[in-house]
Write a structure and sequence with these properties.
Length: 488
């Protein structure tokens, strides 16, 4: 089955065909960096991360661009979010930007999202935005009033095609004091004049001012991906007005379709209400990462389709933690078995057909508009088969165990990012841990041979307190390590 994606623009699933064979150009609306990011933001960027990971898994070369909004994101009151943050913290706007941009990057690294290839900042691309506004004025799509420039929505006959809204039905979202200077309430700002108290300002042909929110994405996406590119991603709340305005101004600039496929992630809610700082129901990513492993948070988000909303609660995260443990336990067990000495009768077990079937089921789910719940279901089915194998053959042949480990590392690790990083690194901390356990087990065996049962018991007791169980049998001593828990 070829990859099918749901396109918000066409309102249907359609075959994904890159403009350039073998290469995908993808743009995602990034954060406005005026405060710490919350779990609602994580839902969006983990969803986009999965899309990029899977496209690359299929062999496509993905150029992933995600912007940083550090100027121009105006609230309904007309106040810039960055300036609001600066007033809140009584500091310089750029200090706010640097602080929370670094915080965002740390959060994304903590969540194991792959960093975009290019992360352009709005303030670093003001000349491109001014040039775009000048072109829109020259082509009759925009007009200047008292140092501000507005896009003339009536010049874009297809305005509303993404959201399905009709121009005449749109509600006015502008401030009272600027309604009079616009030709019509639906027109939106491309450039705003800077009032005397406005700190962030740049010189322009219309006087000192600053760019509107929407023009930054058109300017930066066009610069790095071209006038027409493959995928534009974002949250459902971005569809209107942000994405709608992007389309209108970008297509007015180039005369070409802006993005071929529009992919939007559903919101994260708390008790059915969208998580938002303004509502006081937000949980920062920093706090969530202190409470749960990144892999559990990712598992929680991937248990729902990326286009669907998901409700955040302590109970939901606890359930996700239990599900995640069940999913990865066979992978960790297989890796531990691989580090145990081979058993005398560990004949090779033909597991190849199970691997092939599981991989096919995983890919079929992901090819259906990145259906991560279906992909997780395929991994759970495979986990049951691994458990059955290890119950019948505690130490299967190396070839079988290596194939199982590679399967988990690739799909649960590389594609979904829910396998602990250390477990995917044979030379990493997990391997060192196994080496130390083996050494202690050997020292204990030597102590038992000397009838030094005090030392033997002490080693066994302390390992037990660390979650390592030693089991003595006819063929020697084996150990079992408890799977990590969500509270670790």
């Amino acid at each position: 089955m070829a990859l099918q994606v749901y396109n918000t623009l066409t309102r249907q699933k359609e075959l994904f065909t890159p403009i350039e064979p073998g290469r995908v150009r993808m743009y995602v609306c990034g954060p406005t960096v005026y405060d710490h990011a919350h779990i609602g933001h994580a839902k969006l960027y983990v969803s986009m991360d999965i899309i990029v990971r899977y496209l690359r898994y299929t062999g496509l070369d993905v150029l992933y661009v995600q912007n940083i909004t550090d100027v121009g994101h105006l609230l309904e009151s007309g106040e810039d979010r960055i300036l609001k943050g600066a007033r809140r913290e009584k500091t310089d706007p750029m200090q706010v930007v640097e602080r929370y941009m670094r915080s965002y990057m740390d959060d994304m690294d903590g969540l194991r999202t792959i960093r975009p290839d290019i992360m352009p900042r709005a303030t670093g691309h003001v000349p491109e935005q001014i040039a775009a506004v000048e072109q829109l004025i020259q082509s009759g799509h925009a007009y200047e009033v008292k140092g501000s420039v507005y896009f003339d929505v009536s010049s874009a006959p297809n305005y509303g095609k993404l959201s399905g809204r009709k121009v005449e039905e749109l509600e006015e979202g502008a401030r009272v004091d600027v309604r009079a200077e616009k030709r019509r309430p639906q027109d939106f700002a491309l450039w705003k004049r800077a009032e005397p108290e406005h700190i962030m300002r740049w010189r322009s042909p219309w006087g000192e001012g600053f760019p509107g929110w929407h023009i930054e994405c058109s300017a930066m996406a066009g610069k790095y991906l071209g006038a027409n590119f493959d995928i534009h991603g974002g949250g459902l709340e971005n569809i209107f007005p942000h994405n709608e305005c992007e389309i209108a101004q970008s297509e007015a600039l180039s005369g070409k379709p802006f993005a071929n496929h529009w992919l939007h992630a559903g919101s994260l809610t708390v008790d059915g209400v969208k998580m938002s700082k303004s509502l006081g129901n937000s949980v920062t990513i920093q706090k969530a990462l202190h409470q749960y492993p990144a892999e559990v948070l990712r598992f929680f988000m991937l248990s729902s389709h990326y286009r669907s909303p998901i409700d955040y609660s302590e109970d939901a995260l606890a359930a996700a933690g239990r599900g995640w443990e069940r999913l990865i336990a066979p992978a960790l067990a297989a890796q531990r078995a691989l580090r145990q000495p081979p058993a005398p009768d560990n004949a090779a077990v033909d597991f190849s057909h199970r691997l092939e079937n599981a991989r096919a089921e995983f890919s079929a789910a992901m090819n259906d508009d990145f259906n991560t719940p279906g992909a997780l279901a395929a991994l759970f089915d495979f986990a049951k088969q691994v458990n059955t194998l290890l119950a019948a053959h505690p130490r299967p042949h190396d070839e079988t165990l290596n194939a199982i480990a590679a399967f988990y590392w690739e799909l649960a690790g590389d594609v979904l990012g829910v396998l602990p990083v250390e477990s995917a690194d044979p030379g990493g901390s997990a391997a060192r841990e196994e080496t130390l356990i083996r050494l202690l087990a050997e020292i204990r065996a030597e102590a038992r041979a000397r009838k030094d049962f005090a030392t033997s018991d002490r080693i066994r007791e302390q390992l037990g307190q660390a979650g390592v169980a030693l089991e003595d049998g006819k063929s020697g001593t084996i150990w079992k390590i408890d799977a990590p828990t969500a509270s670790d």
